[in-house]
Amino acid sequence: MKKLLMALLVMGSMAGMARAAGDLVAGRLRCEYLTNPLGLDVAKPRLSWVLEDADRKSEAEGQKSEPRGRKQAAYQILVASTAQLLAQNQGDLWDSGKVVTDQSGQIEYGGKPLASRQQGFWKVGVWTGAIASEAKATWSQAAMWEMGLLKSDEWKGQWIEGSAASDNLLYLRKTFKLTKPVAKARLFVTALGLYQVHLNTQRVGNSVFAPEWTDYSKRLGYQVHDVSALLTQGDNVLGGLVGTGWYSGHIGLGGFKQYGKIPALLAQLEVTYTDGSKQQVVSDDSWKTCASPILVSDFMKGENYDARLEVAAWNGLGLDDSAWTQARVREETSRPLQSQLCEPVREICELPAKAITEPTPGCWTFDFAQNMVGYVRLKVSAPAGTKLTLRHAEVLNADGTLYTKNLRSAKSVDTYICKGGGVEIFQPHFTFHGFRYAELTGLPAKPELDALTGVVVSSDTPRVGQFACSDARINQLYSNICWGQRGNYLSIPTDCPQRDERLGWMGDAQVFVRTATYNADVAAFFSKWLVDVDDAQRDGAFTDLSPGTWGSEGTPAWADAGVICPWTIYHVYGDLRLLEQHYPAMRRWIEWCRTHSSEWLRSKDRGGDYGDWLSIGANTPKDLIGTAYFAYSTGLVAQAAKALGKTDDAAAYGQLFEDIKAAFNKKYVAADGRIQGNTQCCYVMALKFGLLSDEMRAKAVQYLVEDISAKNTHLSTGFVGVSYLLPVLTQAGQIDTVFKLFLQDTFPSWLFSVKHGATTIWERWDGYTPEKGFQDPGMNSFNHYSLGSCGEWMFASLAGIDTDGPGFKKLLIRPTPGPGISWVKASYDSINGKIATSWKMADGSFSLEVTIPPNTTATIYIPTKDAAAVLESGKPAASAAGLKYLRMENAAAVFEAGSGHYAFTSH
User: Fold this and answer.
1) What secondary structure letter does DSSP report for 798?
2) Catalytic residue among 161, 270, 501, 553
3) Residue 763 appears among annotated catalytic residues
4) Which one is the CATH code of 155-339: 3.40.190.10, 3.40.140.20, 2.40.110.10, 2.60.120.260?
5) CATH 3.30.300.30 is the classification of domain 465-795
6) What's the CATH code, domain 2-147?
7) Active site residue 553
8) C-beta of residue 25 within 8 angstroms of C-beta of residue 52
9) Distances (CA, A) of 794 to 235, 461, 518, 630
10) How much of the chain exceeds pLDDT 70, in percent?
11) In this model, does residue 16 exceed pLDDT 50?
12) Model confidence over 685-740: pLDDT tens digits?
């Protein structure tokens, strides 16, 4: 990979020499949402880029000095089979020619058929402004992708395992000889379970829990690694460890060994010599195996490691493995092997301990000052045989000891037995914990503060959102939202990371998905998980969990994730292919609901029927929730059908939505506009889902505001209603109520947990109260992102960054100032470039700085009573370059804007 990257850098510098001052250039080149991916199995990969200033010296300088209204007029893509051909501007695989369009994302490869292992080196030329034939394109730096194994018979490796079922993890190794200098080498590898692979003692890759969790009976992901630099001519050693993971370890509520009993490894090393000849090294019965020092490594149990059992150079040369036993080949039924096209779980960052206490003699509690997901790295020097125990917890009892009741049956304990002889370093291999505090026992004296280091793991989805405002409590809330997402987006979107659950609850995922897209680029992450969602679908009904290991099906708001999530990913990233891929499953869900409803009402067959989960003293009828979501999902399927050009389906499901809406009003809406249950949840659903007439909408808003006021400006919604509460109130113009509710810090409220020291979002509004202490430990996670779904409103309304249509091509900039917050600053790095807003309110004057990325347009709303009073860069906005005044709307002047940086003021 290093050789490839060097070649790409050289080509990039050559491309840069042709750029003229002020040119736009294609940057951030990605293929299937990934940068230079290996192992694609997509026949026609999609290519994307953003437009950047070729001469920008810094982001801040570029934003304020760029000309306005710049956009792409045309592009040309060259794809070559070698880096050298691309450097010569020869697209032997594909030359798109000049394509007159401003599209810069989701461009489908249109060249020669791609074979297994095929490399594609590519670059993009763009034209801006005039596109006369004599104009020259500005060319990007180069990028690449590489195909995986497209046919099952290309896998020559065999599944191998140890000789007997055991909790102990086994070393696996293979010694082999390379007879010539190596030009290129790829390692194709996966496991039933989890693996770590080494070449000549060097760790291959940096993923933590590979492969990702899937339903192993349906499909299994494999990974491809460039290992060219790790091999030498002569003898080499390929070594591996395989853990139980999701395959045969403990998984949540369903026990363990749900997919199989013994983990296994599949590996295939393909070496290309400098003379063009090839050699393969594959997993088979020539591999050797022996016991490793890892006695147990399980997500729920933790890891037990006895360093006295370590085998020096187990993964390198110089070891006599004659006493090792032969690996056993396992006959595996055919299962689809698919390339893993999402970011892996990685170590994201490290956190030092901030304090040590000794609540009981010999028990040393380390505080990392942040609830996190991962494990601790231990640094110790102790005599051989010293047993050290690490326990983990999110919170403490009043006496300073770990509170672990809420972990239920999850042990979350790691143990390490020292080998002696100096400083020893240990961190777990195949387990993780949710914790802020780690307790260390077994040492004869107080440890140093650096004896433990917190290691944070997560699916490595790139951070794309930033948010800050004048209220430090809100900034902490936003931090809590991000840490909750980081901890629970671990291979799949889980509910919690600490107790004996850690499952892909669909309801949690759908209420938070829009917030998630603002915080991180989750396109590849959800592309993978939505396949798991479809895999779990049975008879048309989506399940409560995906991958489906336990639970019911057809539950309102949970099963509806199978429609809401793919629609949201399409809406945010403009991914029409993903929408088309999942449309059949979305449609099957609506047909299942139609069959299992009575006169368009979901009065039966509602699966787990969780209702507005963990609401506070508000009983929203569960059949009402089911019917409302039936309508909402039907409406989304109608929109999806329209986007896909399925006009008959669009009309049919549009009519079905109207039928459900009529049934909803007949059954649940009284003549005076009150909705059955009279809860905040029932009103926000009816308003958000478009289930009411204009007259009844006004009544619903009135009753919603009255309920909030009657509760002394407190919310009562649970998981189902919480994400809609602030957006619905904002859309209804109830700004004072919105800000009073959002800034409330007494129970129940978003800031109540912040006031009590939370560093992640709690599962319950009352996970802890000073009066009652901890809630029922049977259901009391302190890291649950669902109630943090207000993050969507913080970006879309408070900061005013939203998309007007799919893919952030046309932007909606509509900040919402209100009492209690004097300034907000936010940015979002969309699929079409970085959008930024920064507004202030002072002495009755409103100011807004906004950056619109090249190749996009925006509709901008400036709060004012008089459009003529709006200035941009000190001049009347209506005549400013790049702006077009449209209208006054709801006490705001509305402008159309091209790309560039704008500075508005109004009174």
Assistant:
1) I
2) 501
3) yes
4) 2.60.120.260
5) no
6) 2.60.40.10
7) no
8) yes
9) 58, 20, 10, 27
10) 95
11) no
12) 999 999 999 999 999 999 999 999 999 999 999 999 999 999 999 999 999 999 99
